[in-house]
Amino acid sequence: MLTERENDRLSRVGPGTPMGNMLRRYWHPVATIPDLDREKVLTVRILGEDLALYRSDRGEPGLVQQRCPHRSASLAYGIPDEDGIRCPYHGWYFNKAGQCLAQPYDDTENPASTFKDKITITAYPVEEMGGLVWAYMGPLEKMPLLPRWEGFVREGVHKSIGVTHLPCNWLQCMENSLDPVHFEWLHANLMNFLAKKRGEPPVMKPSRHVKIAFDVFEYGIYKRRLLEGDDPETSPDWLVGHPVLFPNILAFKSKSGGNFQIRVPIDDTHTWHLMYNTRLLHDGEEPTVTVYDVPWQHEDGRLYLDTVIGTDMMAWITPGPLAPRHLEHLGVSDRGIILYRNMLSDAINAVQRGEDPPGLVRDPAKNYPMLAYRGEEDIGVARTAFQIPGRSVPRPQERPGTNGHGVVPAPIVAVQSR
């Protein structure tokens, strides 16, 4: 078990916290492109910071602190302009680097004033990729490349993004990804029990786990499982497995380039969860990005438990807003979680020493045209953790979509994993 102090060190993400400092060395999604294209200015809270994301009249995205330094009005209600955003209160004008460009009345009253040159606000670099807007919130001199994983940048595929705002800490979602054994009970046995209560036949086969294994590689951890009845010589789940991309992405290889679950820390007790899916286009289709909501509870407060992702969310949410890990008792099936926690702690230590945490991409030759996974020829069709075939995600509410941004056609660059 962890002590309460160790739990806080691994869980809390605000400015100045050990984990917050480490997570700020990575790029994180902060919004979907369809949402930003529709609204032009969005309220964003990430890593405990309240920010305003906007698209300028030039079409460039910017991400700045919400609080205007003049009289503290929110820039989330600001007015985009050609080179940045204006405060809705008095029109103070900031570019995407956070520099104040104009103070309308003051500039008229005293044209020679240099007051505006002394005013800056917090601003973060942003890039668009695969239907998402990504931000880097760490020190600029340490900024890595935005990793171009194949599923995000592959051309000629439809991309759909299911979003959920969860009332729990991000680490509760991520640790689940290093726990292969839960599939047998949380998904199969629980959902079969609920189906039996409804008078329905079983919906899943609760195959017993025979072996689990974890391989650390350059960009994270591969988790592997061997189920009862599987052939260890041919099973993709055992020979290849699923990569957990450090620090907060679970990936699934597919013929269309890959699917992801991204756990974006909003603050210490809330997570923006993304289910990012790709599929090959049908004849005559154009590539699009669609966004839909994935609720975690019914209107009466009951949790969704008739889908795999619904049961996952139950396991993430019910420990509480921030899980009391000092009360847990880990067993041999939890060695993936222990490995992951150790990696997180080591990464925090590396940042505190002034070093890079693992998984950063700095070499353009590795990043372009795209990153891919091991076992390109052997991975087959991986077991999906998004939904059961023939059963839809609960009440998806599709939003208007737009064509994807930042998609560059090119061959695959393989990633060495051992």
Précis, in short:
The protein is an alpha+beta fold and 418 residues long.
Helix/strand layout:
Elements: H1 4-11, H2 18-23, E1 27-32, H3 33-39, E2 41-46, E3 49-55, E4 61-65, E5 79-80, E6 84-86, E7 93-95, E8 100-102, H4 104-109, E9 123-124, E10 126-129, E11 132-136, H5 150-153, E12 157-166, H6 170-176, H7 182-197, E13 209-217, E14 220-227, H8 236-239, E15 242-245, E16 249-252, E17 259-267, E18 270-280, E19 289-293, H9 308-317, H10 335-352, H11 364-367, E20 397-398
Parallel strand pairs: 12-19
Antiparallel strand pairs: 1-11, 2-3, 3-4, 4-9, 5-6, 6-7, 7-8, 10-11, 12-18, 13-14, 14-15, 15-16, 16-17, 17-18, 19-20
Helix pairs in contact: 7-9
Describe the structure.
The chain is α+β, with helices and mostly antiparallel strands and 418 residues long. The chain folds into two domains: 27-142, Rieske [2Fe-2S] iron-sulphur domain (Rieske Iron-sulfur Protein); 150-398, Naphthalene 1,2-dioxygenase Alpha Subunit, Chain A, domain 1 (Alpha-Beta Complex), CATH 3.90.380. Helices cover 22% and strands 26% of the residues. It contains eleven helices and 20 strands.
